[in-house]
Queue: 2 jobs
Job 1
Amino acid sequence: MDYWQLLLLGSIAGFTIFLGLPVAALQHLSIKKKGFLNAFAIGILVFLIIDIFSHAWESASTAASDAFAGKAPVGSALLDLLAMFGGLAIGLLGLVWYESKYMKKPIKEQQRHTLSSASSSSLSAADDEITLAGTNRMTGGGRGEHQQQHLLQQEVTAYRLAMMIAIGIGAHNFSEGLAIGQSYVSGAIGLAILLIIGFGAHNATEGFGIAGPLTGLVKKPRVRFLILAGLIGGGPTFIGTILGSLWDSSIAYILFLSLAGGALIYVSLLMYNSGRRQTTNNILMAGIFVGLCAGFLTDLMLVLGGA
């Protein structure tokens, strides 16, 4: 397999995430259907959390065991463990800080802040999308202003959750891209191909995870926002494939896995808390179960392939 073919397949593996994003455009859903789709997304995220930390901890604990047995430098093991717990802290506590600083603002303050400055961050890009849409709807008069603000607040939360999920999945997919690139550069071409197939299938289900919070909104999500979320979630697979074929770093691999795991723990708990208020426990658990099954079945492709 030529290098350009590796890059092409790596990009395909990442951008299959767009296959699941159109679910966000579904409208006029019943409360039960919307609750089930959100729970399905939670199930996929829970699977990703299990998968992410199993790989990250396997690498970190192996380094620690080798260092304890005198087979590897102690400093390398300490750096791997630092990457493990440091990435978890950044992914989990960093989003706690973000929520306390930005997500608690009153809706009118969010509008003024978004319209007065153009932020370069991905989360602010999500705010721009929803704020512009909400402002256009609210300038038509004072009727139903309270209800409109309530709906706008729901959309702000949904868009931010979707973008947080995309960022967490993007960090996870970056580590997957590193694995593809490192398999290629080590000469394990067959393994690289299997990883591309398996990760591509995974990313298709991850698109549902991003779309979950956006399903059933009053207004369809903007195509521009969905494209942005897809690029943030799937693009790092391609970038990781390039860097992995040039640079081998267990520290970067562990760091991005644990960072992604921490971020996904945060957003999955937010979605679960919201789901408990919106639907019955039976529907919530059924959706989570189906999402978990979807995650494990796509992962089974790699296991059966010997990867």
Job 2
Amino acid sequence: MEDRINDLESRIAFQEHTIQELQDLVATHQKQLYDMEEAMKVMARRISQVSTASSGTGATDDERPPHY
């Protein structure tokens, strides 16, 4: 009976350790995801600014330069 209790206690300790590692990993991934979302927002704003600035010049990438 004592061996069985020790075995169960050992399993519970291992499971608690594994659960803690998984929680830490999830927290790390959540932070990385948040950071990537923020970076994408910044890039989207920059692309929008560049697009707005280039559309104000009247030239597009499809137009031929005037010397052609």
